[in-house]
From TrEMBL:
Pfam families: FHA (PF00498), FhaA_N (PF12401). Residues 210-258 form the FHA domain. Keywords: Phosphoprotein. Residues 121-191 are annotated as: Disordered. Residues 123-139 have a biased composition (Low complexity). Gene3D superfamilies: 2.60.200.20, FhaA, phosphopeptide-binding domain (DUF3662). Residues 155-167 have a biased composition (Pro residues). It comes from the Bacteria. This is Antibiotic biosynthesis regulator FhaA. The lineage of its organism: Bacteria, Bacillati, Actinomycetota, Actinomycetes, Kitasatosporales.
Length: 283
């Protein structure tokens, strides 16, 4: 069973279904959990063959209405999200510099249903000073903000000033290489493959554009009453993009309602009640 599925099952049993009621807003706990996983992947830093360090201190920024609705449960929700991050890190063989913490904060610039995730690496040493925030990376939505890591505690290997040979791009201070999945080998310069995954089924993208919708004329048909006949279109390229085609319910990309967005490997697209994972890889 996947980490996110187990997280959902644990959440369902909390507070006699209280979370099911408060999460009738557009922000869903599994979306936040997925964003925390991506934050770990995007900020993973390889120290050596046995150690890949990821953030352990997370802040989930919510709109004022969503924050007011969820803040009474922030402690329990934060604990559940931290447990999910711990399970995911174990699965990916990531390590932490200190205890995992997830906090909720109000952000007045966000509309209802939207959120952001910020993260940083905090050492467990009580004398460690928290770092000042770095400039935003420019990505919108989950994972759009990063912090430089705190200095390593005594006895820990020093944080490299540049990525070690074969190290993963996308660590602190290093931009993520387009189309490269965390932990994957560096691109070999070959042809980029594109595909999407819907309910465990892979659909290869062999043309420059791919139309998704409920119509039998769509390139990929999605049998979902919340999906329009021609709902959206994926265009492959550098970078790949997704465009809403005037659908009734719109699209959500990595937690953000939008009409057009840039896609990266692992981007999560929601149309109606259907989740689509966009993938790309070299070779």
């Amino acid at each position: 069973m996947g980490v996110l599925k187990k997280f959902e099952q644990r959440l369902e049993g909390l507070v006699n279904g209280t979370f099911a009621k408060v999460f009738k807003s557009e922000v869903q706990p599994v979306e936040i959990a997925g964003a925390l996983q991506r934050e770990c992947d995007n900020n993973a830093t390889i120290w050596n063959r046995e150690r890949t360090v990821v953030p352990n201190d997370f802040i989930v920024e919510l709109s004022a209405p969503d924050y007011e609705r969820l803040s009474p449960y922030s402690g329990q929700l934060g604990d559940e999200l931290a447990g999910m991050v711990r399970d995911y890190a174990k699965q990916q063989r990531y390590t932490f510099m200190g205890p995992i913490k997830v906090h909720l904060e109000k952000a007045d610039d966000l509309d209802t249903g939207l959120y952001r995730v910020r993260s940083r690496t905090l050492a467990s040493s009580t004398s460690q000073q928290a770092p000042a925030p770095a400039a935003p990376s420019g990505r919108q939505g989950p994972g759009g903000y990063g912090y430089p890591p705190a200095a390593a505690p005594a006895g820990a290997p020093p944080m490299p000033s540049a990525p070690p040979p074969g190290g993963r791009p996308g660590g602190y201070g290093y931009p993520q290489s387009a189309g490269q999945r965390p932990g994957a080998a560096p691109a070999s310069g070959g042809r980029t493959r594109h595909w999407i995954e819907i309910n465990g089924t892979r659909h290869q993208i062999s043309r420059p554009t791919l139309v998704l919708g409920r119509s039998t004329e769509a390139d990929v048909r999605i049998d979902d009453p919340g999906v329009s006949r021609r709902h959206c279109e994926i265009r492959t390229g550098t970078p790949s993009t997704i465009q809403d085609l005037g659908s009734t319910n719109g699209i959500v990309v990595d937690g953000q309602h939008t009409t057009r967005a840039t896609l990266r490997d692992g981007s999560r697209i929601v149309v109606g009640s259907t989740t689509i994972i966009y993938r790309q890889a070299e070779g």
